[in-house]
Design a protein that fits this description.
This protein is an alpha+beta fold. 45% of the residues lie in helices and 41% in strands.
Length: 164
């Protein structure tokens, strides 16, 4: 009888732990969804400072296409003119994210998926890029920050559409 009671208590504790993990995962994913929405908003409005604020000061950008790795601060310096053009209305830009895997805990996240970056210039010329990516994030002082952005390879429209 004592063994049966112990087993029941262990099963109950396990179920409670799993329920807490689901709630915790849901809360983390809701926070991360807000993070990616802020990244999208910053790109769309040309808000460079807000975009920069989503990046860890020691972050790294890895490009599988170019076979390079560099401090994210260097990439930000290179991207700043695009934000300025967007803010001034010379360019329309947007970025959307879809995920195939989202791992993490309350202070770390590894996000895998595809992002769709698009621009339209003043002459109406549009460009679209679909990129397989991985993002490694940490949560510090209540805010998520990108520590590593790995732009792995180009993706197809079909691969993008397969993710929801």
């Amino acid at each position: 009888m004592k063994t049966a009671l112990t087993i029941c208590l262990l099963l109950f504790a396990s179920a409670v732990g799993q329920a807490q993990q689901v709630v915790s995962d849901d809360a983390r994913l809701a926070e991360l969804d807000k993070f990616w929405a802020e990244v999208s908003r910053a790109v769309k409005t040309g808000d460079f400072e807000a975009y920069k604020a989503t990046c860890h000061e020691e972050g790294v950008l890895v490009s599988g296409v170019k076979k390079t790795s560099q401090p994210l601060s260097e990439a930000l310096a290179r991207w700043k003119s695009g934000f300025e053009e967007t803010k001034s209305g010379k360019l329309q830009a947007s970025v959307e994210f879809r995920f195939s895997e989202r791992l993490g805990d309350s202070t770390t996240a590894h996000e895998t998926g595809i992002f769709h970056y698009s621009t339209v210039d003043t002459e109406g010329v549009s460009q679209d890029a679909f990129i397989h990516f991985e993002g490694l994030l940490v949560k510090r002082d209540g805010k998520w920050k990108t520590v590593m952005e790995y732009q792995k390879s180009e993706a197809t429209l079909q691969e993008w559409q397969a993710l929801k």
